[in-house]
């Protein structure tokens, strides 16, 4: 009975009604199979060169001391079926990773760019959003996910994008520019306070629990896309200029074509180089936080502080102390 009441409330949502009227719903299993085609991820219990895994994170109840639990999603996607039975909040990124951690340095391939549209308060805003998709004002998402109170827009690449550092930086810039365009005055009340998210942001599991106790739902709303397609919607200063799609080049062929690289990275296992900058950058950003942080951007402020700390070789202990010292300030402006 409780389930029927919740489901009835869920169906009354104008966003969900609109999606059902205009598009075909797909199951969570079909969504993730499309996102990660057969043979794309690693086979369970088997290490395969050039293949990696998706990672899901389940946020547990406050009583559970572990707070969060990670799950490796292999090529068979059986873990998705298990997670769909959970009543806990679960996030997953359209990205494959090496190892068991979702840290950005472990990211290997990006299968889609995902955007959060969390504040759509009227039928007019929703209709205008899809009007802008249809009239090539905004790029049309491959999948539109009903998140419970808003939308998650997935732009699924025809071929995965390798997470090389130079490509990641450009993609982050592109995503920010597209977010600015999508969060416009016709589509959301928060167009003057846009919430920018990391390229590696995790999103609610399709078919997973929402804040109101219902389940997210996926709809096919467009085609797979390319970087060239997304580039056409932003200013040239925000386009991805240097990029490559996932290569089918094997390690043996790489050894033949790039012997110097092979000897350096594979044989001698010399890590990629990196450079450190002065702590002035870290101190500058800390001043920016204290003078201009706003509600809706606090997580972003701390995320960037951590990034600058890493780049400036600031000890973790100092970063941690600084971050916690900002809590009272953040609480005051909320």
SSE arrangement:
Elements: H1 2-11, H2 14-22, E1 24-26, H3 28-35, E2 54-59, E3 68-73, H4 78-83, E4 89-92, E5 95-97, E6 107-117, H5 123-134, E7 143-146, E8 151-162, H6 165-182, E9 203-204, E10 217-220, H7 227-231, H8 251-257, H9 259-267, H10 280-292, H11 298-311, H12 316-325, H13 327-333
Antiparallel strand pairs: 1-10, 2-3, 2-4, 4-9, 5-6, 6-8, 7-8, 7-10
Helix pairs in contact: 8-9, 10-11
What does this structure look like?
The structure is a single chain. With 334 residues, the chain is α+β, with helices and mostly antiparallel strands. It has helices at residues 2-11, 14-22, 28-35, 78-83, 123-134, 165-182, 227-231, 251-257, 259-267, 280-292, 298-311, 316-325, 327-333; strands spanning 24-26, 54-59, 68-73, 89-92, 95-97, 107-117, 143-146, 151-162, 203-204, 217-220. The strands form two sheets. A six-stranded antiparallel β-sheet has the order 1-10-7-8-6-5. A four-stranded antiparallel β-sheet has the order 3-2-4-9. The longest helix is centred in the middle third of the chain and has 18 residues, at 165-182. The protein is globular and about 60 Å long.
């Amino acid at each position: 009975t409780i389930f029927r009441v919740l489901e009835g409330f869920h169906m009354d949502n104008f966003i969900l009604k609109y999606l059902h009227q205009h598009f075909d719903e797909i199951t969570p299993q079909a969504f993730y199979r499309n996102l990660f085609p057969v043979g794309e991820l690693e086979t369970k219990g088997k290490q395969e060169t050039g293949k990696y895994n998706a990672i899901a994170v389940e946020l547990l109840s406050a009583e559970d001391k572990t707070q969060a639990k990670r799950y490796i999603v292999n090529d068979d996607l059986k873990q998705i079926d298990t997670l769909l039975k959970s009543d806990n909040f679960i996030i997953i990124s359209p990205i494959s990773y090496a190892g068991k951690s979702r840290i950005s340095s472990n990211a290997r391939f990006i299968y889609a760019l995902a955007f959060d549209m969390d504040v759509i308060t009227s039928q007019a805003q929703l209709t205008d959003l899809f009007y802008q998709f249809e009239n090539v004002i905004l790029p049309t998402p491959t999948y539109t996910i009903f998140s419970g109170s808003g939308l998650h827009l997935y732009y699924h690449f025809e071929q995965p994008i390798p997470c090389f550092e130079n490509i990641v930086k450009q993609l982050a810039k592109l995503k920010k520019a597209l977010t600015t365009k999508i969060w416009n005055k016709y589509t959301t009340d928060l167009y003057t306070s846009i919430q920018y998210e990391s390229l590696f942001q995790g999103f609610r599991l399709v078919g997973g629990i929402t804040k109101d106790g219902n389940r997210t739902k996926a709809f096919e709303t467009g085609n797979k896309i390319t970087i060239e397609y997304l580039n056409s919607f932003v200013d040239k200063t925000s386009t991805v200029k240097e990029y490559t799609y996932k290569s089918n080049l094997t390690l043996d062929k790489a050894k033949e074509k790039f012997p110097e690289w092979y000897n350096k990275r594979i044989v001698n296992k010399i890590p990629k180089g990196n450079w450190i900058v002065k702590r002035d950058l870290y101190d500058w950003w800390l001043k920016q936080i204290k003078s201009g942080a706003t509600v809706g951007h606090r997580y972003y402020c701390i995320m960037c502080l951590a990034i600058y700390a890493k780049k400036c070789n600031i000890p973790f202990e100092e970063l941690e102390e600084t971050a916690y010292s900002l809590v009272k300030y953040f609480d005051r402006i909320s």
